[in-house]
C-alpha cells in the first residue's frame, strides 16, 4: 500500500469514528429521554448495534457515495483525501459545539467541492432533463393532492391557512415522490436523490412516528400510565437496538465508500466490490465512536426538543429504523439525523404544537441546511489551494 492510501484509510476511519461521536444521539436520544436504560448501558447497546449494522445491510449506500456522485474515472486519491478531511473537520466542529449534523451531507458536500476544485464541474453526475421533468410533475401532483386533503384537517384544528397550505404541500409532495420511487415510476439517484431527500426523509420520519404514536395511544387509551411504562420500556429498548442497527448500516458505509473508492483509484481493486476487512474496520470505527458518545449532542436531541414517554420512544425508534432500512435498501444516502429528529418531533406533535420546543428545532434545521453548502465551500477552498501549491500532484 502507498502512503497516500494508508493516510486515506486512516482518515476515512477517523470520519466514521467522529460520525459515531455525533451520531450517538441518533441511536440513544429517546432512551436517555425516557430513562429506559441508564446512559452508559444505552451507549453500550448503541455501540454494539452500530457495529453490527454494516454487516447486516447491503453496500448500496457505499456504492452510491463511491460511484453515484462523481464520475468514477475522475476520482483520484488526492480528491478523496481532501473530501474526507473537510467532512471530518465539520463533523468534529459540530460535535464539540453540541450541534447534530448530517455526516452524510458533510461527506457529499466534501466530494462535490473537492471534485469541482480538482476536476471541474463536469465530474458531477447530474440528473437529466427527463428526470427533472418527472420530479417536477411528481411534486406538483403530490403537493396539490396534499393541500386538498389537508385543508379540512387544518380547519378542524384551527391551523392558519398559510401553514396548512405549506404543510399539505410538503407532505403531499414527499409522499408522492416516495410512492413513485417505490413503484418504479420515478427514478432518482446520486445527487438528485440526496437533495430531494433532505426534505423527504424527515417528513417520512415525522409521519411514521406521528401515526404510530396515534395508533398506540388509541389501542392503549384505557391503560394506566404505569402499565404502559412496564410494557413499552423493554419494547423501547428493542426499538432502539433496531434503530441503532439501521443507523450503523447507513452511516457505517461512509468509510466503506471512501476506502473502496481509494482502492479502485490506486488500482488495488478493479471494480466496486467491498472487501470484508473494509466493512469490519468501518463498523469498528463507528461503533467505537458511538461508545465515546458526543454528550452535548445527546443532551440537545434527548431533552430539549420535546418530552418523550416510553411508548413514544418506542414509536420514534421503530419508525426511524423502518425509514432508514427502506432508504438503505434503495441505496439513497440520507441524513440519519434528519430522519430521527423528524420522528422525535412527530411523537411530540401528537400532544400539540406547543409540546415541541421549536426554537431548539429551528437551530437544528439551520445546521441541516448549511451542511452541504459549507462542506462544498470548505473542500473547494482546500482543493483549489492544493491545485495552486502542488499543480503536478
What is the total tally of β strands? 0
What string gives the helices and strands in order? Answer: HHHHHHHHHHHHHHH
Q: How many DSSP helices?
A: 15
Helical content (DSSP H or I, runs of 4+): over 70%
Number of structurally distinct domains: 1
Distance, first to last CA: 18 Å
SSE-based structural type: mainly alpha
Rg (CA only): 21 Å
Low-confidence stretches: none
Mean pLDDT: 84
Principal-axis shape equals: globular
The proportion of residues in beta strands is: under 5%
Biggest sheet character: none
Descriptive notes:
- The protein is mainly alpha-helical and 393 residues long.
- The chain has one domain.
- Helices cover 79% and strands 0% of the residues.
- The chain is built from 15 helices and no strands.
- The longest helix is centred in the N-terminal third of the chain and has 32 residues.
- The protein is globular and about 70 Å long.
Brief account:
This protein has 393 residues and is mainly alpha-helical. It has helices at residues 3-34, 39-56, 60-67, 77-96, 103-119, 129-156, 161-183, 190-219, 225-251, 253-265, 276-292, 295-303, 310-330, 336-349, 358-389.
